Amino acid sequence: MKTVIILTHVTFDNSPYCIYVHEHAKALTKQGYRVIVFAIIHWFPILSHFQKYKKKFMKKMHGEKKSRIIDGVEVIYKKAMSFSNFLYDTKINLNGMSYYHSIKHCFKKIYKKENIVLIDAHTFKVEGYVAYKLKRKYQNLNTVVTLHGTSFSRNTKTKEGIKSIKKILNGVDYSICVSNKIEREAKKIGVNNTRIIYNGINEQKLEEVNKDDYKYNIISVGSLSLNKKHDITINAISELSKKYPQIKLNIVGTGSEIDNLKNLVKEKKLDSMVCFRGQISNKEVQKLMNESYIFVLPSVNEGFGIVYAEAMKAKCVTIGTKNEGIDGFIKDGINGFLVSPNVDEIVNLINEIYDGKYNLEKIRNNAYKGSKELTWENNVKNYIMLIK
Q1: How far apart are CA 18 and CA 119, in angstroms?
Q2: What domains appear along the chain, each with residue ranges and CATH number?
Q3: Nearest-CA neighbor of 299 among 317, 279, 324?
Q4: Residue 3: other Cβ atoms inside 10 A
Q5: What is the DSSP letter of 330?
């Protein structure tokens, strides 16, 4: 049987390691591949309380086993020392070296026994470095690095980061970009072995609803961090509420900006209009999207943004950010809208939407058709084409 090795890390998102990578792995098994995932658990020697938390997590999620079969995928858990941001912007990749050291002997044993057809590394800085090292040692193996955005984009900002990108990505067979934006950035700095492969979105049947019943329901989904620009959305709602006092905004997610955003809502006297939903299940998110008229997220430094595609599938009028990851998948005025991340543009656009300027039924249908193509099956078939 043909075997795919996936390199990733545990993200503590209530999945076996990382939700979207696990969906990708499951889809590969359905195509007949044996999938082995190296899921690294980063540990910090000086933070003893953090170690207790991770140990508790491991026991709860996976018992005392270091590997197990989950949804048909073999997951091998390994610990690797994390140096966090220490020397991050230098040529010394300590986290990558630690990851490689933790798996190299185990990988060698698998290599001798299995017919490995692909090393599939997810994210650039750490897993990408490991894929690069394995490719140098096992030159016959197909090796790809999937660029999801954050780590890659951060490294495009520094001289040493760009050197690292070029060294790693030009040392593997393909650099998989999850958006047009990431491919543009990669080519701009001299990476030419790129391919665009969109992520999939979870299959979920939604109840048919009349969107006009939820005309003034707006939803935004994303971590409560600075780059998601929830403050801009809240300020836009403040302006729109003067004309539409029945407007409601649901914000889904958690993060470091929660107190600042709640204070902004209080300052703008929007307590009855803005609701923070916190971290809820994907099923609950889909239900909220289904009962919303507009989805808006003026996020910056975004790789692709699966939530936009999920909103399009729920037939929300979807508003994304120009020149970010979703630009290219959202075509302005055709299957959604693109704005600059500022209050005035969002307010003007939503006013035009409510004033009937656009054929929303056509836009929603286009969005729905496009989102239906974003399946994990289609995602892995594109990877398989590279192998062949």
Answers
A1: 17
A2: 2-197 (3.40.50.2000), 211-372 (3.40.50.2000)
A3: 324
A4: 18
A5: B
For 163-206, give the DSSP string. HHHHHHHTTSSEEEESSHHHHHHHHHTT---EEE-PPP------
Joined tokens for residue 304: 């692709």
Which residues have C-beta within 8 Å of that of residue 374, sequence separation ≥ 6? 198, 199, 200, 201, 309
List, for residues 60-85, the tens digit of each pLDDT value. Answer: 454 445 789 999 999 999 988 887 77
Q: Which of 34-38, 45-49, 116-120 has the lowest mean pLDDT?
A: 45-49
* Helix, strand, or coil (residue 365): helix
For the stretch 337-365, pLDDT in tens is 999 999 999 999 999 999 999 999 999 99
What predicted TM-score, i.e. pTM, was given to this entire model?
0.84
Residue whose pair of structure tokens reads 């040692």 in the numeric block? 137
Tokens coding 47:
């933070």
